[in-house]
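Per reviewer request, we include the raw input and output of the structure prediction for the construct analysed in the revised manuscript.
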Amino acid sequence: MKTAIVEDELPNYTELRNILIEIDPQMVISQQLPTISETRRYLLSNNDVDVIFADIRLGDGLVFEALSDVIGNTPVVFTTAYDEYAIRAFNYNGIAYLLKPIQKEDVCHALITARKWGTSSGSIRQLFMSMQQGAKVYRQRFLVSHADYSEVIGVERISHIMSENGITRLFLTDGHSAVVSYSLDDLCNQLDPSEFFRANRQCIVHIDHVKRLNNWFRGKTILKVDCYPDLSIEVSKERTSKLKQWLDR
């Protein structure tokens, strides 16, 4: 994996570089890129970079100036002491927004997301084509805020979505979960119905993670998902018929 680090303070560069090497000793890491001009020059001559870790406020301006012309489809993990750029960062292939001091666990999660970026960027191109053709465009990702960073979660990482006591939570294929500020009714309108199904009032499931349907009494069904074997999702008799039609195609 080839990584570029845009950082104007040497101690911060060294700390992040050490974390990356600890995670993956085989990782190829750039020299320190402390300015907009050096960042632009490096990225223009190295178009095989797999992920960019970028501080936002550099000595000669904001890193967005360097990224705007040369970013391509490369995912960017923003590392900063300031939280006011999170929304803007999302427009520059931002897959994570880590607040300093950087934690190893957060870097690990960001690298996992970066490795999946190729599939996501292909989805973006498909979305653009759909928009050009006038088709409805469905949500492809969520920007989720955590205590000290923001994370981009692609819909392909979602096993199922649950709503309980007014709180909606995404349950991910890696066993983690994240709270979002949408109701299930909202999400039913935002998510592709060919991929997501409203199993009951409290739950939406992703088609790729439905493992088994168990017959229950009075025509009801218990739906099981592959990533959460202890979870049983009750589906009414009326919804069961639609569920089977959705799966059998």
